[in-house]
Design brief:
The chain is of the alpha/beta class and 275 residues long. The chain folds into two domains: 134 residues, D-Maltodextrin-Binding Protein, domain 2 (3-Layer(aba) Sandwich), CATH 3.40.190; 100 residues, Periplasmic binding protein-like II (D-Maltodextrin-Binding Protein, domain 2). It has ten helices and twelve strands. Strands 1, 4, 5, 6, 7, 8, 9, 10, 11 and 12 form a ten-stranded mixed beta sheet that branches. α8 crosses α10. The longest helix is centred in the N-terminal third of the chain and has 29 residues. It is elongated and about 60 Å long.
Length: 275
């Protein structure tokens, strides 16, 4: 038996021990999310565009929006920098599951998503509203409820893969649903009259109406449609203590009125970008 043969069992044991240590280290890191973030020096925030939650200036590529500001402030709380990772709504949950980012911003708290990710304390609340052109002859003079838009002559534009997409799919039996990849596309569809109605979050529709007061009207169903908290999504392996730290941070911001200020500022930026 030569020296290399004698060394092979020892080398195999060393390799197995090293792999075991690496696995244990990886598992430990997964159990201490904020500690891992501090070691990396950055808090990665998955950013799917949804005004006024998450916005991106096309000229500067700078992010804004009240979820962006909360993410920045929480990164500062942890002593790291916030970085924003471009994504879309179809991939936002998958990215936090695969640890491509640490926080998914502005996720509606749905039972389906709760199977895939953990949720923080809601930063704000959400419900679906419907924006339409008041001069559209296919609609009644006053749109009071879903029954006024749920007919085969009406096309409802909605952003694909969102809560509002699921809500209109479940609640509109006769209307045509035009699913589009982004907010800009849905708004353009209504402005160009390719679609008759825009289904979107109540606050984003309100901003759009303020930017187009000469023609835009809003109908908000009663009872509310798909009312949910809007929160950060985290990997399911995130320790409860880390989630609690984020929750306490969010609650402190809300109680101090800072989140409301962030929402107001985001609204101003959003309206400026629409003009």
């Amino acid at each position: 038996m030569n020296h290399l043969t004698k060394l092979r069992p020892f080398a195999a044991l060393c390799c197995a021990a090293t792999l075991g240590m690496a696995s244990a280290s990886s598992a430990l890191a997964a159990e201490h999310t904020w500690q891992s973030v501090k070691e990396a020096g950055e808090l990665r925030c998955g950013a799917a565009i949804a005004t006024p939650y998450v916005m991106k200036n096309p000229r500067t590529n700078d992010y804004s929006g009240f979820f962006v500001e909360v993410c920045r402030d929480f990164a500062e709380h942890l002593g790291v920098e916030a970085t924003f990772v471009d994504t879309n709504w179809d991939n936002l949950v998958a990215g936090v599951q695969s640890e491509r980012w640490d926080l998914a911003m502005a996720l509606n708290q749905t039972p389906e998503r709760a199977k895939a990710v953990a949720f923080s304390e809601p930063v704000s609340n959400y419900e679906v509203s419907f924006l339409y052109n008041k001069e559209n002859s296919k609609l009644p003079e006053t749109v009071d409820g879903l029954e006024d838009i749920d007919n085969s002559n009406i096309t409802v534009a909605v952003m694909s893969g969102t809560v509002q997409d699921k809500a209109v799919t479940a609640n509109l039996e006769n209307a045509n649903i035009m699913r589009l990849p982004g907010m800009d596309e849905t708004r353009l569809a209504v402005m160009s009259r390719r679609a008759d109605v825009l289904a979107d979050a109540n606050d984003t529709n309100l901003l759009f109406q303020h930017a187009n007061p000469e023609w835009a009207e809003i109908m908000t169903p009663n009872p509310p449609l798909a009312r949910q908290g809007v929160a950060f999504g985290l990997n399911k392996s995130t320790p409860e203590a880390d989630i609690q730290e984020l929750n306490e941070f969010i609650l402190s911001k809300k109680e101090a009125g800072e989140v409301e200020e962030m929402i107001d500022e985001a609204a101003k930026i959003a309206i400026e970008q629409m003009e």
